[in-house]
Write a structure and sequence with these properties.
Layout: H1 2-29, H2 31-34, E1 38-40, E2 46-49, H3 86-98, E3 122-124, H4 125-130, H5 132-139, H6 143-153, E4 154-156, E5 165-168, H7 169-179
Antiparallel strand pairs: 1-2, 3-5, 4-5
């Protein structure tokens, strides 16, 4: 009889006290992230999340990392392909070819490999800089203007602690749309 009472006490404590308390804590400690870090477009309507990648395929936009789950936030997962799997190498080679990468124009690794979640919203600064010629040609914008836009949205991986610089692709493309108007 005491095991049944313990079971219901645990269900009550975890299901009805712990999770609501955790939600309240999250809304106080990190209000933006607890609501999904939604990014609004110029018209005030949501266009995406700062935390989840989305596909940008137009040559006039910066592209994110490839996604093993086709940018579906409900199915976040890696590809589960081993680094020695030929299918992974073939996919990376096909992506590199689509960017016209060569020995003289090497592509950043994060533009040909998916992240563990398949939904990483950030690319390295090197990956953003690599895409400048394509985006500039498609939009008729100079390399200097594009570099300036990238500089407005880049940030260190670990904030004030430093680390490699990352660029959020959604924020970069929205900033690019703002200057193109």
């Amino acid at each position: 009889m005491s095991i049944i009472r313990l079971f219901f006490l645990c269900v009550l404590a975890i299901g009805f006290l712990y999770f609501p308390a955790l939600l309240v804590f999250a809304k106080i400690a990190a209000p933006e992230k607890s609501l999904g870090s939604i990014v609004n477009g110029p018209d005030g309507k949501p266009v995406g999340s700062r935390l989840v990648a989305q596909a940008f395929i137009s040559p006039g936009y910066f592209h994110p990392r490839p996604s093993a789950v086709d940018y579906n936030g409900q199915g976040a997962a890696g590809s589960n392909l081993s680094p020695t799997n030929p299918a992974l190498a073939e996919r990376a080679a096909a992506i590199a070819k689509s960017y016209d990468a060569s020995a003289g124009n090497p592509i950043s690794a994060d533009l040909v490999t998916a992240s563990g979640s398949g939904l990483d919203p950030d690319i390295t600064l090197a990956a953003a800089l690599y895409q400048i010629p394509r985006v500039g040609n498609a939009r008729g914008i100079t390399s200097e203007q594009l570099r300036s836009v990238i500089d407005t949205v880049k940030r260190p991986l670990m904030g004030k602690l430093g680390g490699p610089e990352l660029v959020n692709v959604l924020e970069l493309n929205l900033a690019l749309d703002r200057i193109s108007r």
